[in-house]
Write a structure and sequence with these properties.
The complex is a heterodimer. Chain A is an alpha/beta fold. Chain A is built from 11 helices and 12 strands. Classes of the chains: A alpha/beta, B alpha/beta.
Chain lengths: ~325, ~325
């Protein structure tokens, strides 16, 4: 059995808009090994959520369309599966948790029923069996008095508790891959810490792989072993987590790391300026010839405007989409 | 004698009724703010941090006279804002403004940028139209937008640009105090840095004071001179920013800091997770509001509420540990 669980190859997804077709994901490739946590980071609109929704065939079409690429899960291309075959994988082998635990739970069904559903659909358990396992899972995700809460509705729970219910629902069938799209963004920081440590525990226990999509570099630093950085629909850098934070190559990655205020940092109360990335992300309807980061990049030179760079190998395990690899002398020391 | 504070908040309390109706008595009271006291000096940035429901936003609204306090005093430049009549308050009101969290819902989609920015000028005796346009144009420049943007509508801008428009609107009447309620929380990291820098630049240029309300400890630490940490309606710790993150004295502050995932893979493998949820503000626990989650809690904490008292100079804490000095 190969080590690779999921491989996304050359995936492009676009959406029909009144201004023409807009490419949200542009030839994205990355792979995830068994038992690994891969972090995908990037800002709003960089394509990280569209990529993850594509894995499960959750992009509505139209307006969405997959223009190219393959998504290989255990060697099978998910994009070519029949809807009923994909349904068998979804919720059983691959499950997903979302940012908003309020809108992703059904408000008119008791939580016990919602968590039990995958067990009845995929494992064919009876109502009573599923209910017993559901209670066990709610205990495992540390919902206090779990058995008594099976018949509660989502609105009776706090945000953190709802996210625990979502995690239980995603985990009941012991998936091989859990996709977590901004799982803690809507939560307070102490609750975020609880949910993250719960996810770490479950991952160790079940050996599943975790695809963690987030904009929070702190969460990535503490959770992921490898990181993919996305910008304007493309992968711009990929590296082991230590390499990314110690030796980021792409000017965008460097800018992101520098623009964050850090707790206990030197900037505290000193009224120092943060290093900002000037400008804004280009609209996805814009056609850009060269590198998409050119307009905001402090190092940009002629070539960046003329031709889009490929992903270059920087060192073992690290790649970056930047012409500075070929012209290191263009990197400005003062930026 | 030290300079009189620009804003003095004393024993501020706000209880919201829950349930009930026009004639029926409320079923319960949500104790959103229970006895908060602090002062803000001129030119200072004062941070209010805490998790959802701790009362930080309610305080911000009361300071601007948008919500009426249940009891307590709010003095702006020595005058109790809740004792002033409408006209006098109207004059005072220009000296304090607010910036909201959500740059999408806080701008009227049917107004142009010029109308949005100059709307505060329409109260009282508005300057002529051409003058208003000139003011709007100047302000747009200050917040990093172009004069050509004056006739555009909010939907034509990104989140960061909309937040700049909101800031320009707040600056329009040349206020002395700005209440900024989570002004960068809805923005992406790279845009967040731009807006934080802008707020700092404007503070220097106009001598502004900020009440900066946020749940993000690192942003507050970066931007503020002093920080008040709130929990369940009370300030549990108040200190200057340099001190607060290096040597927290309240167990809640300690836990809050430990919960922040640090953007460095070499540091503390898993963030420390404090057990439990924030209790309901309808029936807050007796004694110290934090005691059910506190790992240091002892007998006294369960019965008596600690007051916010100075532990060492300029560092106050509400905690029974070490005779009221908190974590040593």
């Amino acid at each position: 059995m190969s080590d690779c669980l999921l491989a996304i190859e050359d995936l492009s997804v676009s959406f029909g808009t009144p201004e023409g077709s807009a490419r949200a994901v542009d030839r994205v490739s990355f792979a995830l090994n068994r038992g690994e946590t891969l972090g995908v980071v990037g800002e709003s609109g960089c394509g990280k959520s569209v990529t993850s929704l594509s894995i499960l065939g959750l992009i509505p079409s139209p307006p969405g369309a997959t223009d190219s690429g393959r998504i290989l899960f255990e060697g099978r291309n998910l994009l070519e599966l029949k809807p009923e075959d994909l349904r068998r994988i979804r919720g059983r082998d691959i499950s997903m948790i979302f940012q908003e635990p309020m809108t992703s739970l059904n408000p008119v069904l008791p939580i016990g029923r919602q968590v039990a559903e995958p067990l009845m659909v995929h494992r064919g358990l009876s109502n009573a069996q599923a209910r017993a396992q559901t209670a066990e899972w709610l205990e495992r995700v540390k919902i206090p008095a779990a058995r008594r809460r099976l018949d509660d509705y989502p609105h009776q729970m706090s945000g953190g508790m709802r996210q625990r219910v979502m995690i239980a629902m995603a985990m009941v069938c012991r998936p091989k891959l859990l996709i977590a799209d901004e799982p803690t963004t809507a939560l307070d920081v102490t609750i975020q810490a609880q949910i993250l440590s719960l996810m770490v525990g479950l991952k160790e226990e079940t050996g599943m792989s975790l695809l963690l999509i987030t904009h929070n570099l702190g969460v990535v630093a503490q959770m992921a072993s490898r990181v993919v950085v996305m910008y304007a629909g493309q992968v711009v850098e990929e590296a082991p987590v230590a390499g990314l934070f110690d030796r980021p190559f792409h000017p965008y990655t460097q800018g992101l790391l520098r623009s964050m205020p850090r707790l206990g940092g030197r900037s505290a109360g000193q009224a120092q300026r943060l290093t900002e990335i000037p400008g804004i992300v280009p609209a996805i309807t814009e056609t850009l010839i060269g590198c998409k980061f050119t307009a905001r990049c402090p190092h940009a030179f002629d070539r960046c405007r003329e031709k889009a760079p490929d992903l270059f190998r920087i060192r073992q395990g690290q790649q970056a989409r930047c012409w500075l690899k070929e012209s290191p002398e263009r990197r400005r020391a003062d930026a | 004698m030290p300079e009189a504070p620009l804003l003095q908040v004393t024993d501020l309390v706000k209880h919201f009724p829950q349930g009930g109706g026009v004639l029926a008595k409320p079923k319960a009271w949500v104790k959103a703010v229970s006895g908060v006291t602090f002062a803000i000096r001129r030119g200072e940035s004062f941070g209010l941090v805490g998790e959802s429901g701790c009362g930080k936003t309610t305080i911000g609204r009361m300071v601007l006279r948008l919500i009426e306090p249940t009891s307590g005093r709010i003095e702006f430049d020595g005058r109790d804002i809740w004792q002033l009549n409408r006209k006098d308050f109207g004059r005072l009101r220009r000296r304090m403004q607010i910036i909201f969290q959500d740059p999408y819902s806080s701008l009227d989609p049917r107004m142009t940028v010029e109308q949005i920015i100059t709307e505060p000028l329409l109260a009282g005796r508005p300057p002529p139209r051409a003058e208003r346009r000139r003011i709007a144009e100047e302000l747009l420049g200050k917040v990093g937008l172009r004069g050509a943007d004056l006739d555009k509508y909010p939907h034509e801008f990104s989140g960061g640009q909309r937040q700049r428009i909101g800031i320009a609107r707040a600056l329009c009447v040349r206020p002395e105090l700005i209440v900024a309620d989570e002004p960068v929380s809805a923005l992406d990291v790279s845009i967040q840095a731009q807006v934080i820098n802008l707020l700092q630049d404007l503070q220097r240029e106009f001598g502004l004071s900020y009440v900066f309300i946020s749940h993000d400890l690192s942003v507050v630490e970066h931007l503020c001179n002093r920080v008040a940490v709130m929990y369940l309606g009370s300030i549990v710790e108040l200190a200057s920013t340099g001190v607060f993150s290096r040597k927290p004295r309240h167990p809640y502050t300690e836990a809050l800091l430990a919960a922040v995932p640090f953007p460095d893979p070499h540091r503390n493998a898993a963030p420390f997770a404090m057990e439990g949820d924030v209790p309901s503000p309808i029936n807050p626990p007796p004694g110290c509001p934090f005691h059910p989650r506190c790992r240091y809690a002892f007998e006294l904490c369960r019965v008596e509420t600690p007051a916010l008292i100075p532990a060492v100079d300029d560092h106050s804490v509400a905690c029974w540990l070490n005779k009221g000095r908190g974590i040593e």
